[in-house]
Structure formats: structure tokens, C-alpha cells
Amino acid sequence: MERQNYVSLWIGSIKDDESLSKYVxxxxxxxxxxxxPSQFLIDFDIDIDDLDEDFIEKVAHEKDCNNLTSLIGGCxxxxxxxxxxxxxxxxxIPEQINAAIILYNFEYDGRxxxxxxxxxxxKYIGAVSYV
Length: 131
Hints:
This protein is an alpha+beta fold and 131 residues long. Helix content is 23%, strand content 34%.
């Protein structure tokens, strides 16, 4: 759900940046002029009206990352959120992780923790304040 000054993080594995964009980006319905939920929103049962698409940040690396800094370093507010997420899960991350999805001004309730599909896997890590 929408919550100012909070950020929610998912980590996972996906083929490449293009696949991640297709998974996360909202589609536009020309017929009705509305955005349609992405597969990511569907997978994690997130209401499209609960977030602002301008506050979605995503990253996919060519190679697997072995720590959060290499995974999400360089993302918005990384100097604040990295230590907070590391306090939650430690500095190392599971093998075969090359992607992250970050929703700003959003605190996910964790109703679905993990998705394992044919072409991708993502796991919800948690939400922290970025201020």
C-alpha cells in the first residue's frame, strides 16, 4: 500500500534488463486510456492504484550479484536504504540473484513472499524508511 517515505524491495533472477522491463512496466490501454497492471503487480497482488509508476526503480545485471551493494548500489537513496536492508538480511544474498525491483513511497504488506515462474523468480525482502 502507498506509504510516504518507505521503500519496498524484491530481489530475484531474470534473463536481462529487457525482460525485467516487460515484467515490471505498466502497459497502456489505448482503448480506455488506462494503465494495465504489469505481471509483477499481478504476481504479488498489488493494486495498480496503490502506487505511482514514477516511483518504480528496477535493475538487472548481466551476472549474478553476491551482495546487496553490487545489486542495488547506485539506486535512489542507496546510502540510506542499503544499511537498513542489510540489517534485515545481512550483506550477502542467495546465489543466482541478478535483479531488483524497488517501489518508493510504498510499503508492501508481504501477502505473497515469493514467485517462481519459468523465466524469473522474485522474493520480497521487506520495506524500510528512506528518510
